[in-house]
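LOG
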Amino acid sequence: MNALREEEPGVRNRWASGPLLNSRIMKRNMELNEINKWPNSWEGIREDVEYGHKIVKLMKPFIKQLLDSSYSPKTTKEHIDNLWLLGGHIIKHINFYEEDRNKDSLLLLTRFIDSFDGPTISDLSEYEQISFDRTCRKFYKYLVQNELNKV
């Protein structure tokens, strides 16, 4: 080990952080794999899955950004859970308003979230709604900076 340290200073430090880094990468990949299952969890009818994939496609880069951020694991999980809730809310909406199913997913999504808050979810406590709104604001800001300028 001393020979390695002499030849390459800092090798020991890189190796020491290797398992931790690999663990974070594995956890990130597991989270992203779970997100691919969201459309099936939102499904009410078969067409929901297809529209759900469009929503996930918009959310995934933001989720990757969250996973790579310096947020605590608890905060990151809270944001990801809130995004799942948002996607489910949109799918529920298009089941009530079938004409919205044909709308562009980005435009429909931005109908529900803005720089102030997200949709009101009746089952949430006040604290949970505040958390949900915080996630929606962050996601909206991300969409404005990265997606809406492409439209």
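LOG (cont.) second protein
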Amino acid sequence: MGLMSARRHAQLFFESRAGSRKPSILANSIPKSGTHLVKAVLQGAGYRYAGHYGDTEHRRLRMVPDGGPFFATAHTTLPVTGPGRRLLIYRDPAEVAVSMAAYIRTRRDHPRHIALGTMALGQAVEAIFAGIEDLEPLAQRYQAMWAWALASQALAINFAEVRQDPAKLLERIGTGGYDPASVARNIGRWNPTKRTKKDPAEKDLVAALRASSSQPIRETFDVYQEIQSSA
């Protein structure tokens, strides 16, 4: 088992008991869209974590009706079996691409580190928007996730709103309040995919991407704005 595979299995088994807990809420997203914060807020509201699911672990995932005590996170565009509430957590593409590029460049165990690890941060971000090897263009990933949300009747929630006010997430899903201290504790907990350091250049790069006229970047923002207008 490679290091990346081991990390993914660690994330699933650390709290989920190999998928034995059935969630009533599924928070699905493109990687680096705010999963860690959403998880912390739901835990702060009293929900218990039932694990993270990608396409590989998708077959383990079975949902139950609203009202259950468990929630799960996912990065998948595959249909999910069972009732329950589905959420699409979406984020500004510039922030996603910069976070993704920075993460991959610093994780030698990531399968795309070989392709992006020797690039400067800006070059790696451009590659993520345009697509490389087995990594499809970011616009296609947004389109696929949006199609999943429409087919699944998922509630689209903007990460920026949750970051500004965590209570917004709970208002959108119609549940009660949360414990801010619990959210802070859960944000600080170990997570195998959490970034702990940021490049000082990231903020300026995000601003430049938002103003860019590059076709792959604009196509991605078009999908993002479509999701925003429909949420």
